[in-house]
């Protein structure tokens, strides 16, 4: 009996040792598998073939988490330098908004696409450029690809629920592509509506990196930093181009763009009447189909803009005399040389407010534009939780401003 117990104990020990070895090997295999998936992004032959043939020089982001490919596609009309351009950003699925933005803004656009599947995004951008002369001629595309936390799927493998626009692109003849896809492009893109998050929870959306890539690659003297799902007001580019070219603008000057949000159904039913002018806004607000951006979810984010006074202002002027003078969530027109977005802010929350604070701390004056504004299609559902994302980083950021600028305490006094 003692010999049996000794043999049994030995067997249990050996079995435990084997299980530990198997567990270790399984973990190593899993790590290798994840590493292979990560590497596959950069073994994406179609995408790499395109960037190599076009001479695109990739760079690594400041914190080493993303690969940046500037000017994957350049605009068809070559411009050495222009007065003002839009700098924006998008995920793969939010590219569906680009046509509307480019329709409202008649100037150049620099857009950064964040993607975990570069070939898939390459195909979609190729389609957008083929179907839209405005996009082909006026938009520069840059790609940002995460190093970690991505899984790779071949561009011809889609989930059953995947919008079928790229499947049509791959399976259709050239004639069918033009007739079926291009003539119905926006309807096909609208099917992306339920797929806004094409990055998983382990990969944050590096919004300020994307903004800076678009900003740095905009060949213009001034940059309009807005999101891709916004529309500019009618003749916004012409107004700004003329004003910025002719006015005597101080070196440290920022211009604020009033921002509104619009009922999605109203926009869909009246799409042909867009973009709109300032004179259209009072009626839309009175009919409850337009309101200041964030007004329902974060009134303090927009109250500082004093929109009542702005709406009552002269529609024939460019600058509004009632300057906000406080920091809040604002879209701005800035000189190309102005301080950029702080890239520690990822996702949304304090990401734009941090730039407003730095602009003020750096001694920039702010004035609100009177006849140029932006509108988001669809009411913003920003949650209070979103507004607390990055709060710790923001507090650290504000502390650093006091060390970097003589006026660095300006936001601490106004916010905390």
Structural class: alpha/beta
- Our count of domains comes out at 2
Termini gap: 76 Å
- The total beta strand count reads 14
Arithmetic mean pLDDT: 78
* CA-atom Rg in angstroms: 25 Å
Strand order of the largest sheet: 1-2-5-4-3-6-12-8-13-11
**Proportion of strand residues:** 15-25%
| Number of alpha- plus pi-helical segments | 18
Contiguous runs where pLDDT drops below 50 for at least 5 residues: 25-42, 151-157
List the main descriptive attributes of the protein structure presented here:
416 residues, alpha/beta, 2 domains, 10-stranded mixed beta sheet, globular
What is the compact description of this entry?
This protein has 18 helices and 14 strands. It has 416 residues and is an alpha/beta fold. It has two domains: 45-194, no CATH class; 230-415, no CATH class.
Describe the protein.
- The protein has 416 residues and is α/β, with parallel strands linked by helices.
- The protein has two domains: 45-194, no CATH class; 230-415, no CATH class.
- 42% of the residues lie in helices and 17% in strands.
- The protein has helices at residues 2-41, 45-53, 98-104, 118-131, 133-138, 165-171, 174-181, 185-190, 207-216, 236-246, 264-269, 281-286, 299-302, 307-311, 351-361, 384-388, 391-404, 410-415, and strands spanning 59-60, 66-73, 82-91, 109-114, 139-146, 220-225, 230-232, 253-257, 259-262, 290-292, 319-320, 331-335, 365-369, 374-377.
- The strands form two sheets. It has a ten-stranded mixed beta sheet with strand order 1-2-5-4-3-6-12-8-13-11.
- Strand 3, helix 3 and strand 4 (109-114) form a beta-alpha-beta unit.
- Helix 15 (351-361) packs parallel to helix 17.
- The protein is globular.
- Mean pLDDT is 78; it is low at 25-42 and 151-157.
